[in-house]
Amino acid sequence: MTSPDLNLLFALDVLLAEGSVAGAARRLRLSPSAMSRTLARLREATGDPLLVRAGRGLVATPRAEELRRRVGRIVQDAEVLLRPTELLDLPRLDKVFTLRTNEGFVEEFGPRLVACIETDAPGVRLRFAPKSDKDSMSLRDAAVDLEISVAGETGPEVRIQALFRDRFIGAVRAGHPLGDGTVTPERYAAGRHIGVSRRGREKGPIDDALSALGLQRTVVCMVSGFSAALAMARASDLIASVPERHTAGARAGMRSFPLPVATVEVTISMLWHPRLDADPAQRWLRERVREVCASR
């Protein structure tokens, strides 16, 4: 029996990731005709058409979807095995790392992370990119080195590690009526609230928890970020409900209290592409992020 051409695994990985012969050809620096011949060899080797035409594009067959989840890991492990071990010279490291995260993380953890990195590697710069979506394309395409967020469904193309758990609390200005006495569900619901949603959703888990008690809060305005909510609450009688750890510094001088209703804690994690697992600089970066998040 003839041994399979293992080079086809790399082509298969790119083809299934791109879903396009032309896109795969560009990534592998091949001509479209050469890539088409490679696809024909893959079809023969797997006994499956893999990509079939649908309108103007190509769609993956069920067999291709199954292979997509497996071949990426195989290729990434092979790349790690064939990569020479590097000794990381931190004082001479000259690199820009891109981290995709929200403003709250940058405001609360960014200064300490920058200071921690400057101590070891003064030539390293950090670029904090805004979170615009939940997909892993930027991680796969190397536009982002590390994402820090509440992780949802992730595929085999993404590694994930929990950093810390956070809970929502209430925050009001100094001297606010809620600053005196116990904050009951009734007192909390009776106040005027600031809603926070990047997608403009008017209700969320807090409203669901209040509804279970037969209560409803009045949201008088909506903002897209917790910093804006705290700024408004600091200058008014409005109530902001924000994550505790993400906003510790931004809440300085304000009155904070546990929410009087049960809400689920969220786990903040960091996500990265598996091909960066063994990279010494990337591992050093992830360790610094872990240290900063664990220091408080």
Low-confidence stretches: none
Shape: elongated
Mean pLDDT: 88
Biggest sheet: strands, sense, closure? 5 strands, mixed
Care to count the β-strands?
12
What does this structure look like?
The protein has ten helices and twelve strands. A five-stranded mixed β-sheet has the order 4-3-5-12-6, with helices on one face. The longest helix has 20 residues, at 62-81. The protein is an alpha/beta fold and 296 residues long. It is elongated, with a radius of gyration of 25 Å. Helix 5 (103-120) links the parallel strand 3 (95-100) and strand 4. The chain has helices at residues 7-18, 21-28, 32-46, 62-81, 103-120, 137-140, 185-190, 205-212, 226-234, 280-294; strands spanning 51-54, 57-60, 95-100, 124-129, 146-150, 159-166, 168-172, 192-196, 218-223, 239-243, 255-258, 266-272. It starts with 6 loop residues before the first helix and ends with a helix. Helix content is 39%, strand content 22%.
Features of this protein?
296 residues, alpha/beta, five-stranded mixed sheet, 10 helices
Can you summarize this structure?
The protein is of the alpha/beta class and 296 residues long.
What is the strand and helix layout of this fold?
Elements: H1 7-18, H2 21-28, H3 32-46, E1 51-54, E2 57-60, H4 62-81, E3 95-100, H5 103-120, E4 124-129, H6 137-140, E5 146-150, E6 159-166, E7 168-172, H7 185-190, E8 192-196, H8 205-212, E9 218-223, H9 226-234, E10 239-243, E11 255-258, E12 266-272, H10 280-294
Parallel strand pairs: 3-4, 3-5, 8-9, 8-10
Antiparallel strand pairs: 1-2, 5-12, 6-12, 7-10, 7-11
Helix pairs in contact: 1-2, 1-3, 1-4, 2-3, 5-10
